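Could you please consider the sequence and fold following this short note?
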Amino acid sequence: MIRMTDVEMEYGNGTEAIRGLSMDVEDGEFVFLVGPSGSGKSTLTKLLTGEVTPSAGRIMVNGFAVSSITDRKLPLMRRTLGVIFQDFRLIEKKTVYDNLAFVMRAVGASGKDIRHRIPYVLKLVGLEDKARSFPNELSGGEQQRVAIARALVNNPETIIADEPTGNLDPERSWELMELLVRINELGTTVLVVTHEKDLVNQFSKRVVTIDQGRIISDQIGGYVGGSIHA
């Protein structure tokens, strides 16, 4: 689970990105995090992955105290997370299979585990016939599904998707979100950071809205506030 309590984040230049934010995401939940540009969404993602340390407050992620985590424990915490980025970040010179195998080897997976896990995950995302393809041979939607497979391959407790549909057309965006819903139904906690109000409103999920570093709404059933700007 994720638990943020009275979290503050002020950067060295004096920018207050997060202001007294408290939020819980329970195991197995699906949550959208929305807000306008500059609202603090990106900073919140960096806080949850341990990329930055809060100025004040407490952050717990899957049993780890991220707000005070040691360098030794940080990789262990990150193994409980699968992060999906807008720009895919695939290794262009490696096949789809080798992109996933690279991630598994990084955490010490055996050859046997790799051979069993990768076909399962590729089937889950609908790419079982693309294992030997290179990223530049795939469409944008297929590349994003590879990015999802990569986030899933080490069986994380939580998926954090940071603007995962930013480079996709509306039809591909819908397919991607349906895939994340199916992954959530298999038991994985999913947090989707997005600015796409219309897409969010098509799903009856919990929506947390932040603005100027504070939560201004937390409800089920879609974003119903003002405009969200990219």
